[in-house]
Write a structure and sequence with these properties.
This protein has 219 residues and is mostly helical. The protein has one domain. It is built from eight helices and no strands. Helix 1 crosses helix 8. The longest helix has 37 residues.
């Protein structure tokens, strides 16, 4: 075996290990988020202090990023952030579950199916979706601006439903973009950052699907 072949094999093994760590951390984070939502269903704090929860989420992202290379602590921070997102979404889960618990299950399964299908497509085709960068980030800014405008000024349920539908498409595109980045651009020691990015895609996809299912299931 030549030296170049040996080097290529080691590079491939390191990349496979990185991908395995990324999706393993992602699975644990989803479990932490699910548990956090379940344990927070009876709490009034997330509902009464939405802006504080938003601040905690932003701070949580910054914390995970800052300790992402500290072995042990990085995983604890990621799981803690997952549990925090579960707490943040618990009020929405409770509202939809009050109409029908199956709507929550359907939204969760739909998010899972979309994520697995788009991830599998990216892995199988090995297509580079970096060209979506401008579209997804511009779309994210647009959704945030319209969402805040609707919250403070318009208070339109129709606009809220429309934004939820657009966001489902947007975060589906983010899954393609970020999965492509996991395969191509993330360094091998950035599996915590990669898992965090994918988790945010799944979480926000689920949140908007939950909104859509909740509205459509409201008689």
């Amino acid at each position: 075996m030549s030296l170049s072949t040996l080097t290529d094999n080691r590079t491939l093994d390191a990349r496979i290990a990185f991908v395995g760590k990324t999706y393993g951390a992602l699975a644990l984070c989803i479990m932490a988020g699910t548990l956090g939502a379940y344990l927070s269903l009876g709490l009034s704090f997330p509902y009464e202090h939405p802006w504080l929860m938003l601040g905690l989420l932003v701070g949580g992202i910054m914390l995970v990023q800052s300790v992402r290379h500290v072995r042990g602590i990085n995983m604890l921070a990621l799981l803690g952030f997952g549990a925090l997102t579960g707490m943040a979404i618990a009020p929405l889960v409770a509202v939809v579950a009050a109409r029908s618990e199956m709507l929550v299950v359907q939204a969760f399964l739909s998010a899972g199916v979309v994520f697995v299908a788009l991830s599998a497509y990216t892995f199988i085709t090995r297509k580079d979706f970096s060209f979506l960068q401008g579209f997804v980030w511009t779309g994210l800014v647009g959704v945030l601006v319209l969402g805040l405008s609707n919250y403070f000024f318009f208070e339109s349920s129709t606009l809220q439903l429309t934004l939820a539908g657009i966001s489902v498409l947007l975060f589906s595109a983010f899954i393609l973009y970020d999965t492509s980045a996991v395969l191509r651009t993330y360094p091998n020691d950035e599996y915590i950052a990669a898992a965090l990015t994918l988790y945010l895609d799944v979480f926000l996809l689920f949140e908007n699907l939950l909104t859509l299912f909740g509205v459509m299931g409201d008689d």
